[in-house]
């Protein structure tokens, strides 16, 4: 049962982050919309008509965050089950797998499929994942699927491989090691097919509850036949439609999937429509070979296929989108979108704001093409925080010089490319303030952006990626989706002293945000409200 949305709520005695009034301390909400923003003194006029008065006691009120790229079921399975993220060694991973198998038994469904996530061999002394024999022994003979941290390769026990007919003939198959490409997609489909409706619902609820507790009011679910299933997407949209959770907007990543996207209730035919894989799995598609492997990765789509998909989506008035990480994959996307624009008209293509997910290996020419074609960059700053730096996984895969060019947020922002921030959960955790921090304190200093710009990309940017420019801000008439935070001193943080200047002077009227200096505590969410409904209360 959700609360009635026609109520009038007055919040006062705090700080309200609003472009309508940079010094606002109070806000009035009527039903699903914000009615007024201003000072505590002026708020007295509304106290008698409010159904509820929220005394903020100095708390900060901001727009609710938007996570623009998630996989809710997989993220929920990691939250509620076996999560190997940060596991320090191969031996520890095998111990955790064995413990999970003992406690979970064969509760994963009729065939006893167990599902886990997050292993990453790059930080292990052995420098390798478990062998098939080690995996079977730890799993106790159960069917087990373990996605790598980037979700672009996976481990499958012998019992799960037996549930995937013809696996040994599928591209990406390995008799003893991780499965990649189509073989990985096949075993993932087999594993997820054995989830019961109850398990799926529990996982999805866990993700939505976690999001709400972190001040996230909206998520973009990036579904598709190679990442989840039609049933998974429709179940998630139905769950979110009950109104007691964050909102969910679904994307369906299937080539030529315009009609499927519409039938499923998706807002776009994109998301994780794979043009390539991921750097950690050596499947991101590059122009130049990897530093630590004698190949250039994997190309799933050609520029011609991209063009056909974008043209079809544009003709149908539906947003398209692609997963592209490596520079060669991004070239294919940009060439394809440009070819589609030649067919159906550049203005029509730009109007739909087609999306590129991840978009990591961008040079100046590619950034300019994003502007030319009106593309949205749906990006994940936590990728840099997790794998960037001179000693990180990116440097292992590409060498330090090439790795330093990844995730150029400042260049994108300067050029005017719309940014929408997300987590790609479970690849990295739901962590909105951590995401803002990761962009503001990028491991490569020249790619850093201000906290204010990063916050905008993680709030209003997610709405703009949906074509809804009016949402994601606390101004009269806007949707009342907001979060209340316990936070310390509010400041204006910029990448470095060269760009501080007037914006950090109190006289500028620039509204402050929490201090996100690395090591400082992050804000704690006290309340999350979505369209006037409270979905989290601490």
From TrEMBL:
Domain annotation Amidohydrolase: ranges: 52-536
Spans annotated as Disordered: 498-520
InterPro entries: Amidohydro_3, Metal-dep_hydrolase_composite, Metal_Hydrolase, YtcJ-like
Top-level taxon in the UniProt lineage: Bacteria
Signal sequence bounds: none
UniProt-recorded name of the protein: Amidohydrolase
């Amino acid at each position: 049962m959700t609360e009635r949305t026609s109520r009038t709520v007055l919040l006062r005695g705090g700080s309200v982050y609003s472009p309508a009034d940079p010094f606002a301390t109070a806000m009035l909400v009527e039903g699903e919309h914000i009615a007024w923003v201003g000072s505590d003194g002026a708020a007295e006029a509304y106290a008698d008509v409010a159904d509820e008065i929220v005394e903020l006691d100095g708390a900060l009120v901001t727009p609710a965050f938007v996570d623009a790229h998630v996989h809710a079921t997989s993220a929920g399975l990691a939250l509620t089950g076996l999560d190997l993220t940060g596991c320090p060694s191969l031996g520890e991973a095998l111990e955790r797998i064995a413990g999970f198998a003992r406690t979970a038994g064969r509760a994963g469904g009729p065939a006893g499929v167990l599902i886990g996530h997050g292993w990453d061999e790059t930080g292990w002394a052995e420098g390798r994942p478990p062998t098939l024999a080690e995996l079977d022994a730890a799993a106790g003979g159960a069917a087990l699927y373990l996605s790598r941290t980037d979700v672009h390769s996976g481990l499958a026990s012998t019992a799960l491989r037996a549930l995937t007919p013809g696996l040994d003939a599928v591209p990406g198959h390995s008799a003893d090691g991780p499965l990649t490409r189509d073989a990985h997609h096949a075993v993932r489909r087999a594993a997820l097919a054995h989830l019961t409706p109850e398990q799926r619902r529990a996982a999805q609820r866990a993700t939505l509850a976690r999001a709400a507790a972190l001040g996230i009011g909206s998520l973009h679910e990036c579904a598709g036949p190679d990442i989840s299933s039609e049933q998974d997407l429709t179940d998630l949209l139905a769950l979110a439609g009950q109104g007691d959770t964050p909102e969910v907007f679904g994307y369906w990543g299937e080539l030529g999937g315009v009609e499927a996207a519409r039938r499923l209730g998706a807002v776009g035919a994109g998301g994780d429509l794979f043009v390539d894989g991921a750097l950690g799995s050596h499947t991101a598609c590059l122009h130049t070979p990897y530093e630590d492997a004698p190949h250039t990765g994997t190309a799933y789509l050609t520029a011609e296929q991209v063009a056909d998909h974008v043209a079809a989506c544009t003709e149908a008035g539906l947003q398209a989108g692609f997963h592209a990480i490596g520079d060669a994959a991004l070239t294919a996307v940009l060439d394809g979108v440009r070819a589609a624009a030649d067919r159906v008209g550049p203005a029509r293509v730009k109007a739909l704001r087609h999306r590129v997910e991840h978009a990591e290996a961008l040079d100046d020419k590619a950034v300019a093409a994003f502007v030319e074609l009106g593309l949205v960059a749906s990006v994940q700053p936590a990728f840099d925080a997790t794998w960037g730096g001179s000693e990180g996984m990116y440097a292992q895969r590409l060498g330090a010089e090439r790795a330093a060019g990844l995730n150029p947020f400042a260049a994108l922002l300067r050029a005017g490319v719309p940014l929408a921030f997300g987590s790609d959960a479970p690849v990295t955790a739901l962590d909105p303030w951590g995401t803002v921090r990761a962009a503001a304190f990028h491991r490569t200093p020249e790619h850093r952006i201000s906290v204010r710009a990063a916050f905008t990309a993680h709030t209003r940017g997610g709405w703009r990626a949906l074509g809804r420019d009016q949402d994601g801000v606390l101004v009269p008439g806007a949707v009342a989706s907001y979060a209340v935070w316990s936070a310390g001193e509010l400041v204006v943080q910029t990448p470095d002293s060269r760009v501080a200047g007037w914006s950090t002077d109190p006289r500028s009227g620039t509204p402050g945000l929490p201090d996100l200096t690395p090591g400082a505590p992050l804000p704690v969410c006290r309340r999350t409200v979505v369209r006037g409904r409270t979905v989290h209360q601490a």
